[in-house]
């Protein structure tokens, strides 16, 4: 694995711990935890969610170091914006606690500026949020011949759309689809998306 002589791959699959501090609203998440099991654990621990992606096989360690866009991003930001601390093992084998007040330059770099090259992040402390009691999902499909009007309407709507909505455009060979998720009930989602 790796494909380059002299490279090293470190498997964090056994770093799947999760602890939640409901007072501070922060979860400490092991660097090998994948999103699918993480979302289930957060839900079972008190109906919590984090701002992160939707692919269940993606690990928190990767998205925490460079992005994390998903259904709650419009309301809560990307994963990197919700990290309040990390534990890192540096090239010298030292364990470093990294946050806004301890190693602030490294904290900044780890959240998207360094390509994951400053050490091995074994855990992240990430802001958690109470999940809504329900979520709604919709897909609207239009013929590709209408792409200009769909894109214009989507751009215009996006400026004033509520933060509870997350939407994206997917272009197919013959059509364009708007995929929408809403942090709330389907009735409210339909009102918020009535523009279409």
Automatic annotation (TrEMBL):
Domain of life: Eukaryota
GO molecular function annotation: FAD binding; oxidoreductase activity
Organism, as annotated: Mortierella alpina
Taxonomic lineage: Eukaryota, Fungi, Fungi incertae sedis, Mucoromycota, Mortierellomycotina
Name of the protein in its database record: FAD-binding PCMH-type domain-containing protein
Family recorded in the similarity comment: Belongs to the oxygen-dependent FAD-linked oxidoreductase family.
Ranges for domain FAD-binding PCMH-type: 1-131
InterPro entries reported in the protein's UniProt record: FAD-bd_PCMH, FAD-bd_PCMH-like_sf, FAD-bd_PCMH_sub2, FAD-linked_Oxidoreductase, Oxid_FAD_bind_N
Co-factor requirement: FAD
Membrane-traversing stretches: 48-72
The entry's keywords: FAD, Flavoprotein, Membrane, Oxidoreductase, Transmembrane, Transmembrane helix
């Amino acid at each position: 694995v790796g494909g380059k002589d002299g490279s090293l791959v470190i498997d964090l699959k056994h770093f799947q711990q999760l602890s939640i501090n409901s007072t501070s609203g922060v979860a400490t998440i092991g660097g090998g935890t994948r999103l699918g099991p993480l979302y289930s654990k957060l839900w079972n621990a008190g109906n919590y969610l984090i701002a992160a992606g939707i692919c269940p096989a993606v690990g928190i360690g990767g998205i925490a170091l460079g992005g994390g866009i998903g259904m709650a991003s419009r309301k809560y930001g990307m994963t990197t914006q919700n990290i309040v601390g990390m534990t890192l093992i540096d090239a010298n084998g030292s364990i470093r606690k990294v946050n806004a007040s301890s190693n602030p330059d490294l904290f900044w770099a780890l959240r998207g500026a360094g390509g994951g090259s400053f050490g091995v992040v074994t855990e992240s402390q990430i802001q958690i949020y109470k999940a809504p009691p329900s979520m709604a999902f919709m897909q609207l499909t239009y013929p590709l011949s209408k792409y200009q009007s769909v894109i214009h309407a989507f751009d215009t709507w996006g400026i004033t759309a509520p933060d509870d909505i997350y939407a994206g455009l997917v272009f197919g060979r013959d059509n364009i689809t708007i995929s929408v998720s809403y942090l709330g009930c389907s009735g409210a989602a339909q009102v918020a998306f009535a523009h279409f």
